[in-house]
TrEMBL record, chain A:
Key words of the record: Cytoplasm, Initiation factor, Protein biosynthesis
Chain positions covered by the region annotation Disordered: 1-108
InterPro entries, sorted: IF-2B-related, IF_2B-like_C, NagB/RpiA_transferase-like
Signal peptide feature range: none
A GO CC term attached to the entry: cytosol
Statement: the UniProt record of this protein carries the keyword Iron-sulfur: no
Polar residues bias (residue ranges): 18-30
Annotated compartments: Cytoplasm, Cytosol
GO molecular function: translation initiation factor activity
Family: Belongs to the eIF-2B alpha/beta/delta subunits family.
Protein name: Translation initiation factor eIF2B subunit delta
Automatic annotation (TrEMBL), chain B:
Family under the similarity heading: Belongs to the eIF-2B alpha/beta/delta subunits family.
Keyword tags: Cytoplasm, Initiation factor, Protein biosynthesis
Subunit structure: Component of the translation initiation factor 2B (eIF2B) complex which is a heterodecamer of two sets of five different subunits: alpha, beta, gamma, delta and epsilon. Subunits alpha, beta and delta comprise a regulatory subcomplex and subunits epsilon and gamma comprise a catalytic subcomplex. Within the complex, the hexameric regulatory complex resides at the center, with the two heterodimeric catalytic subcomplexes bound on opposite sides.
Parts of the chain that traverse the membrane: none
GO terms assigned for molecular function: guanyl-nucleotide exchange factor activity; translation initiation factor activity
GO CC annotation: cytosol; eukaryotic translation initiation factor 2B complex
InterPro entries hit by this protein: eIF2B_beta_subunit, IF-2B-related, IF_2B-like_C, NagB/RpiA_transferase-like
Name by which UniProt lists this protein: Translation initiation factor eIF2B subunit beta
Gene3D superfamilies assigned: Translation initiation factor eif-2b, domain 2 (3.40.50.10470)
Amino acid sequence: MVPAPLLDVHPPAGSPNGEASTSHQKSQKQIRPGNLRTKAERRELQERQRAAKAAKVAANGAPGKQVAKPKEGAPLASAAKPKPTRASDTQSRPAAPVATRAAEKAKAGQAVGTVDTTVKNQARGLLIFSHFGLQKPVSAAKGDIHPAVVRLALQFSTFKITGANARCIATLTAFKTVIQDYITPLNHSLSRHLMTYLSPQISHLVAARPMSVTMGNAIRQLKLEISGTDPDLPEQDAKDALCRKIDTYMRERILIADQVIQETASSKIKDGDVILTFARSSVVEKVLLDAHASGRDFSVVVVDSRPMLEGKRLAAVLSEAGIQCTYLLLPALGSIISEVSTVLVGAHSIHTNGAVYSRAGTALVAMMAKRHSVPVVVCCETYKFSETIQLDSFSKNELAPVGDLFSSFPHNKPRESLTLENKPNLEILNPLYDLTPPTCITAVVTEVGVIPPNSISSIPVALGRLL
Amino acid sequence: MYSIRQVVGSREAALETALVLRQVVSKARFSNIQQLIAVIREVGRRLAEAQPKEHSVGNTVRRVLHNVREEYNSATKGATGASRNVYSISKFVLQGQPRKHTGGAAKSEARITLKENDPSDPDSFARALKPVLMEAIQDVLDELETVYDNVSKNAKDHIHSDEIILTIGHSKTVEAFLKSAGHYRNYTVIVAETAPSYQGHEMARSLSAAGISTFLVPDSSIYAIMSRVNKVILGAHAILANGGLFAISGSLLAATAARAHSTPVVVCAGQFKLTPLWNLYHEHGALDFADPSSVLGFDEGKLVERVDVVNPYYDYVGPELVDVFITNDGDHPPSSVYRLIKETYDDDDHEL
């Protein structure tokens, strides 16, 4: 099982001083006049600390994956060693303040591998991306986790279940099982205790993969329902009522919403259209199949990209249904965009300013389409609305695990020519999402109508509900 | 060798072409300049036809022709002096080529007495002119060999400390540029994978081995990370006469995303990539397509039968998306590329 990837470069929990020192050294590069030592002494001290750190890391096990925090130091330490070429002239100057801090920490008794200058320089670059998926690793099965949730977490972390709608439906279904199996302990009321019972289950899922906005909204609604349960109701009735409410939520806000979107969007597809879509959205798939079933004659261009290469599956499904498909990878987009009549994409979530948070690559597709005056239509149910506003793709994103988890490299490419794992000085990042600015989007099709992206914020208010 | 893509890389192709032309000229027999030009053009045409997509072949031939004519003109200086007194657009055009002319005049001061079409000694013309021609071709060769060094000369002025540079594909010119800057500056490079050739992987490995802090990202995240990128540095396959370029597929995405974020786009290329061509009729670049099995492998079976696959090799990036061309001959904006082409090649040679 591959837990959610972390991109914590420096071990924050392990040695907070390490972080402080690196950020401190960002601003200071002069020699501290306090603690002057000879170059040789400083070098010797550094070597000793490096060796101590390496020994500690070797005891922890093989470094390589960004799994637990103490292991974070390992790729850096091993990166530091084969890199003595790194600007040896810059090493003398920062070596002094480095050595002084190192001396202090050595006295504090902590291994300080991150103090090395080369590592500091590297750490500075990587800090910029440390916003991605900041995760606190949850220890395995703290408390008792329901087996349905355990199985679901496993499916999430191995990417067997992907997609905002699929994950939400799977989560709600699993929670129905959990609620049915739940027994209120004596002297507790269901409405209050059930929530505390569910919290570790939810944390377990979040540890497997960061929660999607859809899951978040659904769970929030569920908690609202739980707290509103009539305390006088017998337990089984209460549980049945909750399960019915979950069913209603799924049916109304996902399945029926999808049907309405299907009909609305497919009525926009005319004969002779060339529809372009990116990766694989469950809603767009339904729209295209529906349009084809109603006899419309159109062709589809499926644009696909690593890391997940989901579009291949969509192309298979569509071509099976008899729709004429063209398949290409994202870099080839420039050649084909001038022949496209509409771009149809799905969304993971949509923000109140109209920005669409969707699979990485959607922003590029929308940008190119806008440049060629091709309308971009986003299909999004109202339960995907998020109250926050994100300014760029960094504030909230998720990294896919390093390596060829999705078998997305072509088979005719020899594996030696590819870089599949991190190396010294080389880090692989696979962001899974990106943010499409509202200016690139022409319209959003929801189950309550087709709305321009700027008006997204008024929809929940107009419908009289809090999302 | 060209037609089966055995010579890979624009610079290698250019070098080979120059070497072939040197051999041809050294062995050629001609009694006047027209014959020599015709011989070179014939050879050049055949080489260019063997690999029509490798523009550097044709460019090198044009370059050699230009140098040959220049040497010939300066060797027979007296005859061409009169044309300078004409008051017309042609004077403006001629005076628009100051650099090359003064260079040519300085080189061959020794006035060679040339006897053209001498019936008694048909080889005298050739014999007299050959050393000068060899020098001219050697100039072209020298320039090709020092391309990477000259492009990287000012690398440290273009890249500053703590910058984040985005690049795509595996251009050797860009690689040399970044490594040269890496000796003086501490910065980070993000390399996009560039599917389906995945050349980005090689580039990332090479840069990280040289000690530059590197990130490898899939092409899908180019827009996502662009807000943090300070500069985009691209390589070119060919630079077109309007200042646009053919570059590896994916470059258009990077350049457009950079424009959307007002990030400067820098193109590093040798001057041998300057091509007197226009891309008028096709949105996409160069009509050169690569093997579709790297997009959808034959192991996909049923899918392959039913689905069309498109795999263009190059993108066309318009001049409005590029901020500067860094060549071995200095930095130029896209708007002055037409002038560079006028200076480097002769008008007669646009069609070989």
